[in-house]
Amino acid sequence: GVPGAPGAPAAMAVFVTRRIPAEGLRALSQAGGCRVQLWDSEEPVPRAELLAGVAGKRGLLCLLSDRIDREVLDAAGPSLKVISTMSVGFDHLALDEIKKRGIRVGYTPDVLTDATAELSVALLLATCRRLPEALEQVKSGGWTTWKPLWMCGYGLSDSTVGIIGLGRIGQAVARRLKPFGVKKFLYTGSRPKPENAAEFEAEFVPLAKLAEESDFVVVTCALTPATQGMCNKEFFGRMKKTAVFVNTSRGAVVNQDDLYDALAQGKIAAAGLDVTTPEPLPTEHPLLSLKNCVVLPHIGSATYATRSTMAVLAADNLLAGLRGEPMPHELVL
């Protein structure tokens, strides 16, 4: 039907929680009968506006910075049938509540795998070779003459790399690290994944063994009750003093106080984080006072092409859900 005409499917009313890349918005606006209400800002939608915006809508397109909990679902009411998140992670969605109400969920895996893996490798190299520290030395006049041990770090050649969560992104990271001459890959997770591990001859080990034997630990798992706070005092205590820790998954997988202590006391060599709790990390946070901690502002998937593709996939998931068709990427609850 014609939008707004008698008998038009009000069924197609959707709320979009942010100004997403233009290609995504275009996909929605060009869909027949889809009525879009947009929080037209670069900044997150305030809670009150989110609650008002979802009321009576059939579809919701959200970002990982939007907490979609019981309160939001109640505000939306029984009309809400589809939630599409422009993210691969879904720890911001109250899945139990969503499932209870029979709401379908779309997400955007695969399309951000390469960009996130690339950033993970960049962060690992920046951390282990002390790039931010080195840049600072050049600018501050700390660079004097060539010195044999000055600014030395740790290399990947002949190393053991431990990957926590050998899913899409974990495999893509291993694939990129392998040509650096990594000697051995270890991985851990809820269960062995021989089909994922074969390419790297990666060995499935318990978390404690991964901590003890890895020269580099890369966290690429999903945030779940099982992984929350998993990298804690005990974990860092088991790691080598020369080991480098990198997290590009979710901040809450790491106990940040324990990480700070491990870095400050030299229990581990360095850490690189693309994710923190909270996000953004306050500028006065203790981690930011450490030379051996590199913190990035959650830019894992931040290439123009990837963000555009994510937006289009989120839109396509939403539209398919509204039409009662199979989604390109549905999260099976």
From TrEMBL:
Listed A to Z, the keywords are: Oxidoreductase
- Listed GO MF terms: glyoxylate reductase (NADPH) activity; hydroxypyruvate reductase (NADH) activity; NAD binding
Q: Reply yes or no: does the keyword Oxidoreductase apply.
A: yes
Domain D-isomer specific 2-hydroxyacid dehydrogenase NAD-binding stretches: 121-300
One Gene Ontology cellular component term attached to this UniProt record is: cytosol
Pfam families, per this entry?
A: 2-Hacid_dh (PF00389), 2-Hacid_dh_C (PF02826)
In what residue span(s) does the D-isomer specific 2-hydroxyacid dehydrogenase catalytic domain sit? 14-330
Q: Which SUPFAM superfamilies does this chain map to?
A: Formate/glycerate dehydrogenase catalytic domain-like, NAD(P)-binding Rossmann-fold domains
Q: Which PANTHER family match?
A: 2-HYDROXYACID DEHYDROGENASE-RELATED, GLYOXYLATE REDUCTASE_HYDROXYPYRUVATE REDUCTASE
Q: Which family does it belong to?
A: Belongs to the D-isomer specific 2-hydroxyacid dehydrogenase family.
Put simply, this protein is called Glyoxylate reductase/hydroxypyruvate reductase
Q: Which gene encodes it?
A: Grhpr_2
